[in-house]
Amino acid sequence: MASNxxxxxxxxxxxxxxxxxxxxxPGILEQLHDDATWWxxxxxxxxxxxxxxxxLAPLLLGATELYKTGALxxxxxxMIAEGDRVAVEAExxxxxxxxxxxxxxxxxxxxxxxxxxxxxxxxMDTVHAYETFLAPSAQ
Length: 139
Known about the structure:
Layout: H1 6-20, H2 25-30, E1 32-40, E2 49-52, H3 53-66, E3 73-82, E4 85-95, E5 101-102, E6 105-113, E7 116-124, H4 126-134
Parallel strand pairs: 1-7
Antiparallel strand pairs: 1-2, 3-4, 4-5, 4-6, 6-7
């Protein structure tokens, strides 16, 4: 498959983040190549590590159950593209059903295969993720 131009690569990623921000898990998965992987930085048990497309589905479904609106909005703040790779600085926002707010900053590297996402590397504030999703609630 021919390489994407920088602008078409950015457009694929923008579209993906738009779909991701709806919480529509089947729609999100449709944007991923069948052999896609998603790597999350850090050492947070249950969150960090590498996920295949098949492994990502239950993780996303579980997460959407936590959000008041059923979705984590991810807004790209800046993008740099070179061929089939796109680097993105982004910010997320979601109010959780338990009253917490998840508002993280990210650096993503997306690798594309045509109009599908092949690989994602996600770097974020893992302490904020832990405190929001994994830390025991204060009693």
